[in-house]
Amino acid sequence: MEKKRCVAMLLAGGKGSRLNALTKDLAKPAVPFGGKYRIIDFTLSNCANSGIDTVGVLTQYQPLLLNSYIGIGSAWDLDSKNGGVTVLPPYSESSEVKWYTGTASAIYQNLNYLKQYQPDYVLILSGDHIYKMNYESMLEYHIEKRADVTISLIEVPWAEASRFGIMNTNDELRILEFEEKPSEPKNNLASMGIYIFSWNILKEYLEMDARNPDSSHDFGKDVIPRLLEENKKLYAYPFKGYWKDVGTVKSLWEANMDLLEEDCELDLFDHDWRIYSVNPNRPPQYISPDARVMESLINEGCTIEGKIDKSVLFHGVTVGKDSTVKESVIMPDATIGSNCFIEKAIVPCDVKIPDGTVIRSFDDEIILVTEEMLKALYSAY
Amino acid sequence: MKRKLLGIIDATTYHEDLDDLLTHRSLAALPYAGRYRIIDFVLSNMVNSGIRSVAIFPKMQYRSLMDHLGSGKNWDLNRKRDGLFFFPSPVVGSYPKGIGSFDLFAANMDYFYRSTQEYAIITNCYTILNMNFKPMLEWHMHANCDITEIHHQDGRSLEMYLIKTSLLMKLIETRFETGYSCMKDVVSDIHNDYTVCQYDYDGYAVKIDSIESYYSTSMNLLKPNVWQNLFNNDQPILTKVKDEPPAKYLKGSSVKNSMIANGCLISGAVENSIVSRGVKIGKGTVIKNCVIMQKCQIEDNCYLDSVILDKDVRVESGTHLTGTAGAPFVIRKGTRQGALMNS
Predict the structure, then answer these.
(1) Which of A48, A110, A180, B34 is most buried as measured by Cβ atoms within 10 A of its Cβ?
(2) DSSP element (H, E) containing B45
(3) CA-to-CA distance for B223 and B204, rounded, in angstroms?
(4) Terminus-to-terminus CA distance in chain B, angstroms?
(5) Contact assignment for B262 to A36 by CB distance below 8 Å
(6) Phi-psi region of A76 (alpha: psi -120 to 50; beta: other; left: phi over 0)
(7) What Gene3D superfamilies does the annotation carry (chain B) (predicted)?
(8) Is B143 in the A-facing interface, judged by CB distances under 8 Å?
(9) pLDDT of residue B62
């Protein structure tokens, strides 16, 4: 196997339980986003655009759709003879089945995958976030700082800081302290869950962590604190730009709405940093003579006969006559009948909304429409 | 079926009436319906009919066609066995006069010798239709025909022929003795030795052979019964993937009765138009009855009615361009239109 300078390991086993019904049958990285993408497209496209051509994708929770979606990686131009995408599910050894119990154990169990490439550096990513980032620049920074580990950080609102791993650094951005979800955060510099490890350090500390029966085998909780204890060189890499953890129905909805702004910070139209995805190959969208579309993002294969206002429509969505879809996200192949009114809602894939249905929120909650909800609504009649 | 039918696309046709749109490309590569090239229709029909070996015979200006087709991956034709074959004509100059020129095929006889498929379907590259060839093959076999010509239900020949590969090879090899130079010569000779059948197709099928037919059939696409006949999920029309984001409708946009492809940024008004991938339409601009090809940029406060904009055209702010339904105003690829140029 050809030696690779940097190999990426993408943790894509997340359950995303706060996304409720959306992640019942699929892993969080496979959740649809932005009218044509799945969340994992952003990380995979970042790899492709950063020149990282060897990516191990670790799947565990509901992997069927994710595995077939990733395939051999051709959508992201990662179907190369040397390297490319490799899906790495948990496997069994002679004595036991080794589930991925934590982020660190997931990588530890795939050290053999990494060893094949004799990498100098390993980039550890999560498939849960929406952002555009050049990992190559982060790697240069890591090399320049002669760091053992580099962790990317982003400034988050103080109110949310206790949801993240918070880093305290000195003026040179050397990390002095790392607190996972602190109740009283000392600052608002949060870890984005993106790590670059020098290979020897990664191997040594993962092996050490695996032998420790008291460890929860998590990078943030176990491996990083241990490295700091032993005075290793950990640096923070400051990231500026759009970054969002779409972990809840509300934040997923908000991130979709962000895309509708005229000068959206997350520019999907930038040809120098394309976001690739598996193309559904549908005809152009048809906007009927009675339709009205305002400030929206609409994908191919849609048939629009109603009014669409500030909404995101994925491929193959049909909206019938005299219906209004307002501030909503309608996922692939969902059908909205005629005379419907849908406001502040997320309609998942393939859901069929009967004629005349009204879905609106009376508080600020975002409604996740499910087949069960519709059944309950219509059994009342 | 898989190993039964060969697909042969004659992409040598050139129509002088389409000159303005064909200076940089062959007819087969002419953009159509917002995200396709004309050849996508017959090529996808073949793939959807289970054909796994397709030979394309292009002539002149085939750079854009090759760029579009690549290895055939988007049609699932990048196969170890069979797949997509490209046979440019070895002869420069004159264009063959009928569909399925035997001279053209003769230059690539090896393809026919190596193929194991028992039947071959020969099509032109300029018909827009979504047809499954499987039922026709069964019908052809059942009726013991030697050659079947596809006709539209209204009587027009669609210039597509089904024939046993061995008979096709015989016709190619004996072309000098028989005097038949193409498939059309054979079927139109009433004294030929073969059982020539006619298969009636009742779906939507139109031929692109002039600016007028290009424009009027493009406008036809806005009729629901037409686009529903051409586009369905069971027999998708496949094309080259471009990774454009969804179309974005910005403040001030108003779009009616139109087909909009991905990657568009729309701030103006669009009505009765086909807008291709990656087009930008500025504020206060009105686009009516137009066909706008890929990556055109129409700046603010323009007025375009009955205009065909070829790829990469830039229309500067305040420009007014008007054609008529019978004679749409055609702007050539890659040009720039200023407010003062056509007033």
Answers:
(1) B34
(2) helix B39-48
(3) 12
(4) 58
(5) yes
(6) alpha
(7) Hexapeptide repeat proteins, Spore Coat Polysaccharide Biosynthesis Protein SpsA, Chain A
(8) no
(9) 85
Is B151 within 8 Å of B158 (Cβ atoms)? yes
A contact residues 176-195, partner B, Cβ 8 Å cutoff? none
What does B81-92 look like in DSSP terms, one character per residue? Answer: SSEEEE---SS-
Hey, are the CB atoms on A262 and B253 less than 8 Å from each other? Answer: no
pLDDT under 70: residue ranges of chain A: 380-381
Residues 332-361 of A with CB under 8 A from B: none
Whether B274 sits inside 8 A of A284 (CB atoms) is yes
pLDDT confidence of residue B343: 44
Pairing of strands A121-126, A6-11: parallel
- B153-159: which pairs have CB atoms within 8 A and are 24 or more residues apart? B153/B200, B153/B201, B153/B202, B156/B207, B158/B124, B158/B127, B158/B129, B158/B201, B158/B205, B158/B207, B159/B99, B159/B123, B159/B124, B159/B127, B159/B184
Q: Is the dihedral of CA A184, A189, A193, A196 positive or negative?
A: negative
At residue A100, the pLDDT reads 87
What's the pTM value of the predicted model, to 2 decimals? 0.94
Extents of the domains making up chain B: 5-230, 248-342
Q: Mark yes or no for CB contact A281/B274 under 8 Å.
A: no
Interface of B with A in 236-295 (CB under 8 A): 236-239, 241, 243, 245-251, 253-263, 265, 274-276
pLDDT at position B95 is 65
Q: How far apart are CA A308 and CA A296, in angstroms?
A: 7
**Pick from A331, A376, A241: nearest CA to A36:** A331
Q: What residues in A contact B292, CB-CB < 8 Å? A: none
| Known binding-site residue numbers of A for alpha-D-glucose 1-phosphate | 100, 165, 180-181, 191
pLDDT in tens, A270-290: 999 999 999 989 999 999 999
The closest alpha carbon to A236, from A165, A176, A153, belongs to: A153
Set of chain B residues whose Cβ sits within 8 Å of the Cβ of A275 = 243, 245
Check if A121 contacts B (Cβ < 8 Å): no
- Kindly calculate the radius of gyration of chain A based on its CA atoms and give it in whole angstroms: 22
Q: What's the CA angle centered on A212, arms A211 and A215, to 5 degrees?
A: 130
CATH for B5-230 is 3.90.550.10
CATH 3.10.450.50 fits B248-342, yes or no: no
The helix/strand/coil state of B316 is coil
| Residues of chain A contacting B256 with CB distance shorter than 8 Å | 287-289, 291-292
- 3-state SS of chain A? CCCCCEEEEEECCCCCHHHHHHHCCCCHHHCEECCCEECHHHHHHHHHHCCCCEEEEECCCCHHHHHHHHCCCHHHCCCCCCCEEEEECCEECCCCEECCCCHHHHHHCCHHHHHCCCCCEEEEEECCEEECCCHHHHHHHHHHCCCCEEEEEEECCHHHHHHCEEEEECCCCEEEEEEECCCCCCCCEEEEEEEEEEHHHHHHHHHHHHHCCCCCCCHHHHHHHHHHHCCCCEEEEECCCCEEECCCHHHHHHHHHHCCCCCCCCCCCCHHHCCCCCCCCCCCEEECCCCEEECEEECCCCEECCEEECCEECCCCEECCCCEEECCEECCCCEECCCCEEECEEECCCCEECCCCEECCCCCCCEECCHHHHHHHHHCC
